[in-house]
Amino acid sequence: MTVQVELPCPKCKSTKMKFERPEIRETDIITCAACGHNLGTMASIRERMNKAYQGLKKPSAARKLQ
Q1: Widest Cα–Cα separation across the chain
Q2: What pLDDT score does 5 carry?
């Protein structure tokens, strides 16, 4: 059984990823189900997403202060 989760693939823009286990672990390597592109481990993806979110959050807060 494989699990699918929605993450955007930077190569083909598909949002379907596949996992070999029924649950997602931090060490799982995430692969695009459409094109086979390797996005890295779940932990590295979460870290990049958190950094991107923080980057988006900071400029909006600075604009509110002006």
Answers
A1: 52
A2: 64
